[in-house]
Amino acid sequence: MRITNNMMRNNAMLHIQKNKAAYNKYFEQYASEKKIQNPSDNPTIAVRALRFRTTMIEIDQYLSNCDDAENWMDATEEPIDKVNKILDGMLEYVTHAANDPNNADDRETIAKQLRQNADAIYQEHANRDYAGRYIFTGYRTDVPLLFDADQSDTTYTITENLEINEIQKYAYVYGQADYDDSKDASDYANEASEFLQTHRILLAYNNCDKEDVTITYKDVKGESHTVTAVTKSIPDNQTFNEQYHPGENEVYFVPETGELVFGDAIYDSIRAGSGLSAQFTKTQFTRSDIRPEHYFNCRAENNVTGVVKNYDNVTEQKINYQVNFSQTLTVNTLACDTFDTTIGRAVDDIYKVINDLEIMEKNYAAVKKRIDDCDPNDKEKMANLQELYDQIGTQLTLQNTVLTNSYSHAITVFQEAKTKLNVSLADHGARYSRLKMTQSGLEVLKTGTDEAKSENEDADLEEAYVNYTEADLLYQASLQATSKILGTSLLDFI
Length: 494
Prior knowledge:
Blueprint: H1 5-32, H2 43-99, H3 104-126, E1 129-130, E2 133-134, E3 154-161, E4 168-174, H4 185-190, E5 194-202, E6 213-218, E7 224-231, E8 251-254, E9 259-262, H5 264-271, E10 274-282, E11 297-302, E12 308-311, E13 320-324, E14 327-330, H6 342-373, H7 379-457, H8 461-487
Helix pairs in contact: 1-8, 2-3, 2-7, 3-6, 6-7
């Protein structure tokens, strides 16, 4: 085959172009430190690069979610720890109070300290917020746990599930001798106080509406029963502590103190059954009262606008963060699972007993004053007053026993509240540990994915430099060879 100059020129230009393309390829690899510049250079590398980059974006987002979750859970753990310490202090107070004699000043100091601690639990810690979002209120992070002002324009119909084993065997002073100038010693003796026992449970609120309270439970056979409690308002009592003296098959509801008092027969039926709950209404809320929607299934009706809101499934309001591929983590802790309302109610009960005791002490002092002022020669009146004095003294002794029992009951309440708190803290700690393990795994995965991404995309600089140098030599050689070939023609031989 005849080889012409044009053919040699074309072949030379083709080889120069190939060498130039290789020279440019390795130059770009060396300059950019990347294997390819366009997807078409190597589709396999391009597809893998997209996958690795997508994975890296997802991992970064999960790590960001983990950081947010960790911050939220750190903010949650602090108030729980502090409440735990407060409960330790409250237990110490009531333990000393239950075992040591206390005068009026001691009682007042203990009650005030318990009230301050209870307020600190709910107001400072349970109502804690983080970055403008309330920590323990479930989905409603924009709604505080407590009322921030007195409220009386909305009526809440609250359904509270009650633990049967929390029904307390309650000792109380029944009846009292009241001064009346027309009474004689035998009258005062007949009015002597009795030390009786009943069974009661405290609802989550005091100062409830004076409306019917519906109690439902299942007996030992599993049959449902509904009982309407008899409203027994304290101001209507004819006898001291009449509200604790129901009939065998009656349940008394005391709206002022939020107590349910069970007659013996119905208590026996309830104790053998299950599923005890009470439905009651409350309209008057004071500042720092717990908002019912965070603890109970309830219905709220605005008495001005008539708007009705229903709150259900309060225990299922879990805020989940996606912290890994197909993995979510619950980051929030609910107040109803952590801070028991019985803490404040036990303190309320102690205050009530102390208040009754102070009234008795004033009556006792008043009768003593009458005795001191009485004419010693008036033997009959002196005897009458002395009998009254003795009866009130006995009542004081009995009431002090009731106070000691209240302290003992508070010990049980605070210990159970502490147990509930610790269970919640343990659950929180388990989720936190899982979060840290997930976070650690993501960091390892990120490192591995980043290395794989680099291996897929990044050029080896040493290899790129050798290839670049080699391509440069080939390109220069092809230029020299072409210049020699193209520089000679047929005219050079004529």
